[in-house]
Design brief:
Elements: H1 2-14, E1 35-39, E2 46-49, E3 58-62, E4 67-80, E5 85-92, E6 97-99, E7 103-105, E8 122-123, E9 126-127, E10 134-136, E11 149-151, E12 158-160, E13 165-173, E14 191-198, E15 202-209, E16 220-221, E17 226-229, E18 241-246, E19 256-257, H2 259-264
Antiparallel strand pairs: 1-4, 1-7, 2-3, 4-5, 5-6, 8-9, 10-11, 11-18, 12-17, 13-14, 13-16, 14-15, 15-18, 18-19
């Protein structure tokens, strides 16, 4: 029996074929196959990456014409490819990602992947919106008008509702241009952001999303619902989540409070 299982696993890994010389070897992190596809590029090898974006570290290169085994798919960076234009990325059996824009496949159903990042901590009715370290604190000496905390999550990390509530704002907030591009320190505003009204008139705000949020005003959301994805729109020097907590609705600078002690009262720690 063990020998048969070994052969089965080996066969699955072999389905990710024709890796270019010097490519990283596949691992058996994901073994369930939804189907296979063929890489179609302009002739150059396709980069396999550690996450669903062109900025994620490259883990391997896959030759044009090679067959890949697809485990599931996930929403990520929008890519204009040789096969299609899409924001979906295919997670392969070796736990790497390739843009579905360069994969020709039959129309078999591809299941959605589970989250590609560790699930944020949760206790009771509340949870952390992302799993990431603290980059900048609340109203520090150098940033006295900073009404929230910055959490250093990478681009396309899912941003989750910290508690159940109702969406009260979905806003593009920039002093110039559009929220659909990376921001900079030269402009002001929170970029794409969402506000949720929770029980007790508590409002949470989630800023600098990579694209239009995944929720709409008036929508009820459960704790942990994906609101959007980390980006760097608005007044931002790099991908992160700016997270605010307010003790009233509408949320203003006057009712902003430090999210760190607030979350600590719910058994959650930002640091």
């Amino acid at each position: 029996m063990k020998r048969r299982q070994h052969r089965t696993t080996a066969a699955l890994l072999a389905a990710v074929s024709a890796l270019a010389p010097g490519a990283a070897p596949a691992s058996a992190a994901v073994t369930r196959i939804a189907g296979t596809g063929r890489v179609v590029t302009a002739g150059t090898p396709l980069n396999a990456r550690s996450g669903p974006s062109a900025s994620s570290p490259r883990t391997a290169t896959i030759n044009n014409g090679a067959t890949v085994s697809i485990a599931c798919r996930v929403a990520g960076e929008f890519i204009r490819g040789t096969v299609r234009n899409t924001g979906y990325w295919d997670r392969l059996v070796d736990d790497s990602f390739v843009s579905d824009a360069y994969v020709r496949r039959r129309d078999f159903p591809i299941p959605a992947c589970t989250t590609t990042t560790p699930a944020p901590a949760a206790t009771g009715a509340w949870m952390l919106p992302v799993t990431a370290g603290l980059v900048s604190g609340f109203r520090t000496t150098s940033r006295p008008a900073h009404d929230g905390v910055d959490l250093g999550a990478s681009r396309y990390t899912p941003i989750r509702a910290a508690a159940a509530g109702r969406v009260v704002k979905v806003v593009c907030n920039v002093s110039a241009g559009t929220c659909d591009v990376d921001g900079s320190l030269r402009i002001t505003g929170c970029g794409w952001y969402v506000e949720i009204l929770h029980a007790g008139d508590i409002v949470t705000r989630y800023c600098h999303m990579v694209r239009r949020p995944s929720v709409t005003v008036g929508q009820s959301v459960a704790r942990g619902a994906i609101l959007g994805y980390v980006g760097t729109s608005g007044n931002s020097s790099g991908p992160h989540l700016h997270f605010e907590v307010h003790t009233g609705n509408p949320a203003t600078s006057a009712n902003a409070i430090d999210p760190i002690p607030f979350m600590r009262t719910h058994g959650l720690f930002i640091g």
